[in-house]
Structure formats: C-alpha cells, structure tokens
C-alpha cells in the first residue's frame, strides 16, 4: 500500500537515497531545510518505517586552562628540561629549579624522572637520556590542532590520557551525542517514487513568498494515527461515591447532610459512648483547640442522655466534655441528630461524607476518608430486614457472595459484620458494620421505633472495585492509573 508523503519527507528521502547515512545537521545543510523541519520529517519517516536512526555517544577532549598554557610553553617537565639545557653542565641546584618553576616544580620533577629525562644526586638535578615528546605531550599537541575537540577513541595510549585526566585543568572531557539517519528497505523503495521535479522550495525555510491566488493541494493520509487525547473525567473514587448514592436513592432512601465539625455530645454521648472511652482520647480523635459548642442540644435531650449515662455507666456525666468540638469520626452523628429532631416514625435515610480519625497512615488506614451510612426506622423492622437490604445493596454493586458474622459495636445490639468474597484475593473480606440501635441510644432522644443502621468506608469498596492493595493509591494522582481506569457505568 502506498503511503502519503509530505514534501519534507520526500526531500529527506531523496537526499538519503543519494547520500546514504547522514546526521540531521548534514541533512539540514544539504536540503536547506531548518533543523526543526528535518527532525520533524525524520520522526514522520520513522513512524512509517521508512527511516531509522542510529544514535551514538562519544567523549570529546579539549584543552583546559593549563592545557592551553602547556601547548605554548610545554608541560612542566618539558619546561624543566629546557631550563637545564640552558645551563652550563646541564645541571642545577634543587632550589634554583624550584625558584624557576614555582608551583609546577613538584609535577615537573615527578614526570621528568618517570620519563627518564633527569637524575637527582643529593640536592642537585642533572639532565640525562633522550628527550623525545612524551605520550602526554603528543596528546596535548593533537588536541591543540583541533579546538572543537578530539574523540577519546582517537588516542591509542589510554594510560597517557588517564594521566592527563588526573592533572587538574589540563584537559576537559565532554560527552556528545550524535545520530545517523538512514533509509530502510521500504524507504529505499519509497525514494524511487519521489518525482524529480517536485517543488522543494515550497517547504524551504528561506522561501516565504506565496502568490495571492495560489492553492496548495496535498493528499491526506486517512490511515495516519490520530493524536491521543485524554478527556477530562471524574476521579474513580468520586465515581464509586456517585454509584453508592444512586443505589441508595433507587432503594427509596433520602440523603441527609451534616457538618464535618460536631460537638462531642452528638458524636459520642448521644450514641451512648462513655466520656472516658478510649475512642475519645486525643490519639484517636481530632479536637478543635480553644473552642467549644455554645449550644449542643435541647435541654430535655441533654438531661435524658445524661441520665442514661449515669444509669448505664455509673459515672458523673460532664456537660463541659460534651461541648468539646471534634472533626466527626463517623457520619452516625448526623443521622442520630436527624432522628432525634424530626422524630420519624418511619424513614429510610442515608449519609455520605468525610470522617476523620487520628490514626497512623498505612496501606489500609487514612486519617481522612469517606463513609456511607444508612438507617431504616419502622415499627416492625427486624434484623432479617437489615440483612436483606445489605444483600440487595451489595448485589447492585456487583458483589454476589455475602455472609454475616455476629460481632460487637458500642451503640447497636444485636450487631453484625458483613463479609464479602473477594475473587482476586480468594478470601472473605470484612466490609460494613451493622445492627439495631440500642434502647440506651433511641429512648433518651424520643425515638420510639426500632432503627436499623449500617455503615462503612467507601475507600474500601473502591479498593475492591479497582483491585488496589494500598488505600493511599486512590490519592496519589498517578495519571497513568487514573487514565487507565474505566469509568463506572
């Protein structure tokens, strides 16, 4: 199948067919196209398997500050030899050579002795042997003739090069990457079909004149790949939250919303949690410093909850402790206040929102996460109704294997733990807690009928949905993962 070629591609193909392998810079010079046009054309040809690029890297050696001085005056050891030649007897006292060479004296003595150019007798230097150019001097001479640098591959004496590298500021090594562009077999065939009379000047960077009535007609490659576009979409966790909300609404529930900041009265006391319970300590709860609630509830609500604590827990209940403000540790505080204020005889309510726990972050715990909770109020509701509702909810979430275990929760009795089977892990996993509100919770607040309640973390559902093993992955903004996650249907 023939491919549609842009004039830039045609010009590169034609040039490479004649000149074989060239660098992008060579192509730019020969074709008179800009380097950007050349690079763009090369990428197009690579994509169509018409050209290939072989990249290489070489190290260039140039002279440093002291290297430039050595190319003019000679290396320190050469300067020492020349100094001794200028003296009678070709020898001198050590101090005289030191005064002449100054800071270069040490390297000059060491390298001159290594080359066999001098002898040291007590405190005197004497010239000896032949003084042909050393390997280091040959390298300096070679580099001085090529200011742009010489590749390290051009030097056979690697030891001499290493020796110069250890001498500060004599040579400088820099890495330079290069690329050779050539044609594939398909490219050679494609080059044969490029017409000789094509107007290459129309794509030259130096040609900008276009006739007013001129029309440029080019073929369109309908098989060319379209650019990848990542359209905006909601976060996977938000998708799960919306799905959970939609399921509850479809089951006849109404959503209630409450503040993230609650008094300890509604967050703990109204739920029959004693004021000395460990969950109310600073290490488990975020308290607001230096501020307390002015009003927490109606006077009769406060009195009846206080009496329930005194009778049930046998301690002196403190109003000041109930006025402390906390970042809610669950959404049940919103639900229980709604039931206490509205006195529902029958109701189906749910709440979704953030909750806060003063916990150490780990693969399964966050200090801030989302919780969903639902309640059903009715005269004849039973634990079997609660299990049926939970089963229906899980089925709508696509979870088929469910079972329930008896457990303990502070403000429900009886209490159950729902378990769902995770196919990927091959085991049962705890999910939502559930139960019936205790009389110590409902009676002080004037709630007459039984209340079925359940709740749990939405992040845990999201982890199961997306096969994650660390809850923190939901908040890492990994664009690769976010783009790969399919949107919930």
UniProtKB/TrEMBL annotation:
It is an enzyme of class 6 (ligase). GO terms for cellular component: cytoplasm. GO terms for molecular function: ATP binding; metal ion binding; phenylalanine-tRNA ligase activity; tRNA binding. Residues 244-486 form the Aminoacyl-transfer RNA synthetases class-II family profile domain. One of its GO terms (biological process) is phenylalanyl-tRNA aminoacylation. InterPro entries: aa-tRNA-synth_II (IPR006195), aa-tRNA-synth_II/BPL/LPL (IPR045864), Phe-tRNA-synth_IIc_asu (IPR004529), Phenylalanyl-tRNA_Synthase (IPR002319). The keyword Electron transport does not apply. Its EC number is 6.1.1.20. Pfam families: tRNA-synt_2d. It is found in: Cytoplasm. It comes from the Archaea. Keywords: Aminoacyl-tRNA synthetase, ATP-binding, Cytoplasm, Ligase, Magnesium, Metal-binding, Nucleotide-binding, Protein biosynthesis. Its main location: cytoplasm. The keyword Ligase applies. Belongs to the class-II aminoacyl-tRNA synthetase family. Phe-tRNA synthetase alpha subunit type 2 subfamily. This is phenylalanine--tRNA ligase. It comes from Nitrosotalea devaniterrae.
């Amino acid at each position: 199948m023939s491919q549609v070629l842009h004039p830039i591609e045609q010009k590169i193909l034609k040039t490479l067919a004649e000149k074989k392998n060239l660098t992008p810079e060579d192509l730019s010079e020969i074709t008179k196209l800009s380097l950007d046009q050349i690079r763009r054309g090369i990428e197009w040809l690579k994509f169509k398997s018409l050209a290939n690029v072989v990249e290489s890297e070489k190290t260039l050696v140039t002279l440093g500050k002291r290297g430039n001085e050595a190319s003019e005056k000679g290396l320190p050891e050469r300067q020492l030899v020349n100094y001794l030649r200028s003296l009678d007897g070709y020898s001198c006292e050590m101090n005289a050579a030191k005064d002449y060479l100054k800071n270069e004296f040490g390297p000059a003595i060491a390298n001159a002795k290594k080359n066999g150019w001098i002898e040291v007798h007590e405190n005197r230097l004497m010239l000896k042997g032949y003084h042909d150019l050393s390997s280091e001097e040959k390298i300096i001479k070679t580099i001085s003739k090529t200011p742009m640098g010489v590749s390290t591959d051009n030097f056979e004496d690697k030891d001499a090069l290493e020796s110069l590298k250890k001498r500060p500021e004599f040579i400088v090594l820099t890495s330079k990457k290069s690329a050779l562009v050539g044609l594939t077999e398909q490219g050679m065939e494609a080059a044969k079909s490029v017409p000789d009379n094509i107007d290459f000047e129309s794509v030259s960077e130096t040609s900008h004149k276009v006739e007013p009535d001129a029309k440029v007609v080019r073929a369109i490659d309908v098989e060319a790949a379209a650019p990848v576009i990542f359209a905006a979409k909601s976060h996977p966790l938000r998708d799960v939250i919306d799905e959970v909300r939609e399921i509850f609404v479809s089951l006849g529930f109404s959503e209630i919303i409450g503040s993230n900041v609650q008094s300890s009265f509604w967050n703990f006391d109204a739920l029959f949690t004693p004021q000395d319970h460990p969950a109310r300590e600073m290490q488990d709860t975020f308290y607001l410093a230096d501020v307390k609630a002015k009003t927490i509830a109606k006077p009769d609500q406060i009195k009846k909850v206080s009496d329930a604590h005194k009778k049930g827990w046998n301690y002196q209940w403190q109003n000041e402790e109930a006025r402390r403000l906390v970042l809610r540790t669950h959404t049940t505080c919103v639900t229980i206040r709604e039931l206490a204020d509205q006195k529902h005889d029958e109701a189906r309510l749910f709440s979704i929102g953030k909750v806060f726990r003063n916990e150490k972050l780990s693969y399964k715990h966050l200090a801030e996460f989302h919780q969903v909770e639902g309640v059903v109020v009715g005269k004849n509701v039973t634990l079997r109704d609660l299990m049926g509702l939970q089963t229906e909810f899980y089925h709508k979430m696509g979870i088929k294997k469910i079972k329930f275990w008896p457990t303990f929760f502070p403000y429900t009795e009886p209490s159950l733990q729902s378990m769902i089977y995770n196919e990927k892990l091959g085991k049962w996993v705890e999910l939502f807690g559930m139960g019936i509100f205790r009389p110590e919770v409902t009676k002080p607040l004037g709630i007459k009928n039984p209340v079925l309640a359940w709740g749990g973390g939405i992040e845990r559902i999201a982890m199961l949905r997306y096969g994650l093993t660390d809850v923190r992955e939901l908040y890492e903004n990994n664009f690769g993962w976010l783009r790969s996650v399919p949107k919930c249907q």
